[in-house]
Every structure is written in C-alpha cells, then in structure tokens.
Model the fold of this input.
Amino acid sequence: MYQRPELVAAHDRFWSLIRDGLLAAGIAAPERLSQAADENAVWADPSLVLSQTCGMPYRTRLRGRVALVGTPDFGVDGCGPGYYRSAIVVRAGDARRELKEYRDGVLAFNQTDSQSG
Done:
C-alpha cells in the first residue's frame, strides 16, 4: 500500500529487520515482500503473517479479521508520535492561493477508503 520507488530501499530494510525477528521467534516469513499482490486479497489470506495498512481500511474492513500489532512512527518532521496529517499539493505554477479558489478544480486522491486520501 505504501510502496513508491523512493521508498523501496527503506521498505526492504524495514522488512529484513522484521523478518529476522520473526525467524528468530520460529515464525516462517518470506525473504522478500510481494509488491504486486492486491492488498485486499493479501489482507484476507489465511496465511498472512504481517502486513501494513492505512488506518481507515483497518477500521472499516479489517478490524476483527486481523490483529493489530503496532503502528509505525516514521519520524515525520513537525508531526509528533501518534499524530497524523495529510498534505494538499498543487502544481508549482498554479496562481490560486486560497483553498476556496479550488472549489471547481479537479482533485486526485489515493483511494476512497484511505485516511490519507
């Protein structure tokens, strides 16, 4: 759900540390993560060991079906532990400066069930 080209190395490192811990506890874990799999299919798979999701899919579809084991804190500047924020971004050359000026604009967002949009 969060795989972007600039995050591949960080995600691979994060997974290797998690995998090492799982293996040390006697829990089988794949060497590499599958980034091509459909997240909904993965979350419903009975062989799921561990996955990451946005809070909204967890609250709306997954709670009671999976166990929440933790919430990572990625150390975003200006956003304290346990807090969350999104950003609205626009083209650098756009002349509009007030949110109300975008009323008739076109909006692109991640997913309808994503807390971050």
